[in-house]
Amino acid sequence: MKKVISLKYVIVSLLILIGIWQLLFNISSYSPALFPSPLMALNALIEMITTGVLIKSIATSLGRFAIGYGLSVASAVLIGLILGSLPKVFKYVNPTLQLLRPISPTAWMPFVVLLFGIGDVPAIVIIFIAAFFPVLLATVSAVSRIDKVYYRVSENFGIKQPQLMWKVIFPAAFPQIASAIHLALGSAWIFLVAGEMVGATSGLGYSIIDARNNVRADILLATIFVIGIIGLILDFALGLIEKRILRAWGGSV
After folding, report:
1. Which of 93, 122, 164, 209 could be stapled to 199 by a disulfide with Cβ–Cβ 3.0 to 4.6 Å?
2. pLDDT tens, 28-38?
């Protein structure tokens, strides 16, 4: 029932958004070539689907996203668990992390393009950077806040590393880590598109630039809509995965 209600909210929200879009189109003095109606964007979307351009762009972007986001989360959680278990070491590492963390991932784009050229790698690197620091710092924080009772009980049962890390520390810290992973998903998806707009010749981000260069605002808005829908689906899917893991470990959902 909850899924049905959630879907109802999504549909109503999208209909309101489209209604506002149509209203703005009706009262706007801009040319339809610059500010198309929802119907024009829908026709452009159908055109992209029938020609196969949209499916290819989605597959390319999702492939880059899966690699960049997956590597980023895996490495950030692993390093975060280690640093969180070594607070004295983290005190020396933390200043460097705080220096690098506020730098926008897109600021690295010119340097990354110079190193790797145009293609998949720049977009993957940008995704990696976008998700890495939030997940890493949240993991360290989560480990540092674990109740000391867990460690005393583990010691009584003779649980030592590496079993302690994976059987006690990680499950105990997972709820907070999961929240950071969830938030990092949105940032990574945003910067994927930004990376493809600068450092790629394919994908959804590149489709936006290509539509702009060809003065196809209908395709541009249709692509933006698709990007938003995919982001919504990814967020929902990740939420389901988190709930299943928490349920398996006896956490609240």
Report:
1. 122
2. 888 888 899 99
